[in-house]
Design the sequence.
């Protein structure tokens, strides 16, 4: 099923099950990794991924095709991930920085993290970044999302995103050298 | 090329799934991408996580019926009016049913109790009665003529002997 057909079927309520499964199959991997780089832990990423698809399904009628479907879904996934982390911090009564420390500690004992020492240090460095820089760095470095696409997803100019990535990269390098 | 392939006049007999080559690039890229994410970041997923990832089609969210406030107040006003009317009718009915009691229905005890409760001192009772009774008697006597009085006395006191006084 092509993307156009998927969108039309979901918006008009035709063969919705089939269209929804096709949508999931097409986008689950990229969305998962995008979410995972933000929330870090697999269980959390799984929760957020499911919520993202449910939100996409429930709001597909408001998708006006003024951006690519994937960009729109990416935006939902980003917002869902940030909301999830904020809720988690509130639930655990932690500040943003305390939550970042907690996530890194959890990562060290996570069975689904098999990174070496450098990768763990890299994650620690990323967690020191402000949220916007963190998301831009993850999208550019790990997911290799082009700036133009990132601009559509994050609703920010290409220049601002390049600047964000530049600053983030400098901070990460500094952190790794000092540590 | 075609000549070479059909050199023995036989077909190879092998089959591939329909459109296999059309989707092969995507499948390989997806797999590659998935591996590159985990290689770069160190994050792993449970075995066959993506293969088993399924999500039931969510049910449509139930739309909540919104009742406009203006309409609600209208209904409330109507209900209040009806309630007032019913309560009023019951109250009037209870009063009018009390009013149907005749004076003859009352026994002496009830009357005495009423007088005790409502007239606190005997003086009050006397003063009140005296005034009204004397006034009435005076007015009636003034209006009577002497001739009528004598006639009345003759009729009612026939057997009495006035000469004895």
Sequence:
């Amino acid at each position: 099923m092509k993307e156009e057909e998927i969108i039309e079927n979901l918006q008009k309520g035709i063969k919705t099950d089939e269209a929804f499964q096709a949508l999931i199959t097409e986008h689950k991997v990229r969305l998962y990794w995008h979410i995972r780089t933000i929330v870090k832990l697999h269980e959390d990423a799984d929760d957020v991924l499911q919520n993202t698809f449910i939100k996409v399904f429930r709001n597909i009628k408001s998708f006006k095709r003024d951006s690519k479907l994937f960009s729109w879904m990416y935006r939902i996934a980003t917002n869902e991930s940030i909301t999830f982390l904020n809720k988690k911090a509130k639930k655990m009564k932690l500040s943003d920085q305390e939550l970042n420390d907690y996530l890194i500690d959890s990562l060290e004992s996570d069975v689904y993290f098999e990174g070496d020492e450098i990768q763990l240090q890299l994650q620690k460095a990323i967690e020191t970044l402000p949220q916007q820089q963190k998301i831009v760095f993850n999208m550019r470095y790990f997911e290799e999302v082009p700036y133009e696409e990132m601009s559509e997803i994050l609703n920010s100019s290409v220049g601002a995103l390049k600047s964000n990535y530049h600053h983030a990269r400098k901070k990460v390098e500094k952190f790794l050298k000092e540590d | 090329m075609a000549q070479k392939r059909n050199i023995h006049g036989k077909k190879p007999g092998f089959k591939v799934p329909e459109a296999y080559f059309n989707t092969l690039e995507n499948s390989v890229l997806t797999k590659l991408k998935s591996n590159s994410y985990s290689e770069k970041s160190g994050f792993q997923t449970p075995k066959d996580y993506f293969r088993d990832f399924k999500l039931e089609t969510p049910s449509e969210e139930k739309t909540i019926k919104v009742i406009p406030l203006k309409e609600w107040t209208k209904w409330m006003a109507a209900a209040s009016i009806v309630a007032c009317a019913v309560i009023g009718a019951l109250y009037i009915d209870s009063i009018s049913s009390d009013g149907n009691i005749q004076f003859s229905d009352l026994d002496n005890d009830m009357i005495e109790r009423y007088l005790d409760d409502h007239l606190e001192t005997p003086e009050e009772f006397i003063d009140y009665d005296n005034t009204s009774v004397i006034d009435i008697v005076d007015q009636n006597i003034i209006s009577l003529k002497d001739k009528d009085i004598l006639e009345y006395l003759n009729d009612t006191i026939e057997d009495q002997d006035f000469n004895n006084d």
Chain B has a mean pLDDT of 68. The two ends of chain B are 174 Å apart (CA to CA). Helices of chain B lie at 2-5, 20-41, 49-52, 69-99, 108-118, 122-143, 146-156.
